[in-house]
Task: structure prediction
Amino acid sequence: MSENPVMICETLLRDAHQSLLATRMRTQDMLCVAAQMDQIGYWSAEVWGGATFDSAMRFLGEDPWERLRILRREMPNTRLQMLLRGQNIVGYKHYPDDIVEHFVVAAKRNGIDVFRIFDALNDIRNMEYAMKIAKREGGHVQATISYTTSPVHDIPSFVKMGRELADRGADSICIKDMAGLITPYAAYELVAALKKDVGLPVQLHTHYTSGMGTAALLKAAEAGVDVIDTAISSLSLSTSQPPTETLVACLKGTERDTGLDLNKLADISRCMAEVRKKYASFEAGISAVDVNVLQFQVPGGMLSNLVSQLRQQGAMDRYYDVLDEIPRVRAEMGYPPLVTPSSQIVGTQATLNVMMGERYKVIPEEVKQYIRGCYGKPPAPIDPEVQRKAIGDEQPITCRPADLLSPGWEKAKAEIGDLAKSEEDILSYALFPQIARPFLERRVKGLGGKEEYAAAIAAMLIQQAEAKASKAKTAAAPVITATPWKTAWRPGRGGR
Result:
């Protein structure tokens, strides 16, 4: 290993399967590699947070807290990392401070070492309370810049945000490029500027959607980045991260040599290649590189949601009309980074504008709440005419949105009652009451996730049978046909 190695955060147990397999990987399939991963020497392993929390209960019949405890037990020598959406925690709305505090304390107690904390609007007010509690509890606070491009986003503005995050107690800074927009030279410039002007360790997270991910990480390494996010090769590329082994090989023998063992990484990759086959029915169905993200700045998960919505309405012929509309809506809404939940808000409004034949004829409640300031302060002013159509003469709030929320812990505790056997159960209910209650009821009956698992197996077997039948039919009468882009919207995909 060199004296100044690039360190690796491995994403296969969180973002990689969230991006590629609709967050459906079960804990038991993570255990085939967990112990091996613990011997690699990663800087950290991202294992929790994002959409994995609600997906575990919603689709897999699994307790997300139990997953964390199991992985902590299996990986005692590796930092475990989570993605925390600031005041949104792991949900899609703002939660009161007491829920944030209980959650961060419980996450640390159950095994999280590194808290990657971000806000969809880069509104630091929505990040600082979670940062404060994580710091108090002894966690590593990785304060995060949601990277995007627009007339109001540039290197100086991101560096300014980095300084403000450092002033609030950040231990490191993460550049979170959720859409794969960062170019190699922009990565070099931003990393170099943060290293020089902020003085904290810098980590770069990107996605391979645009095809620039590996090059961006290499240029970041040249600029002095401390840690890069990669995914083991069998769960990499497309909307996931660049492949771990490729980056390790690229840097081998240089002054930034990672020191990681390619043979050990290959063993993990082979195991995950077999695991991935189990989840074929949940594949994102997006090609290895999707240049639409460069033209329209739309992340891969948002694209798959859009395709599904248009198919359901028999309106795939309007696909590019909606893609053209998304940047217009984003500009009118103040150029929010397209990450959960702002990506859903912008995408829904753009789709409605096209499908209704009149822009802003229908405005969903989430869009109105965004314009009211209930998600935070947009990076740029909202178009006055759009604001008038949405909320009339009502004035948006200017305070931190969570300041308007009543405490929620005691209320949630009383509502869930004896179904909750721990503080963690109360938190699950406080965050996702409509999901957690039936999950906890099934647990009392001893059902767990058996029925969901059986349904998943049945779906996979049906898909395999259909594929065989289709193959046999094609062999009997070969005809060249256009293959439709097979993708389906499922909650949990694309929620970064």
Remarks:
- The mean pLDDT is 90.
- The beta strands are 7-10, 44-49, 80-84, 114-117, 140-146, 172-176, 202-205, 227-230.
- The radius of gyration is 22 Å.
- Residues 15 and 315 are 30 Å apart (CA to CA).
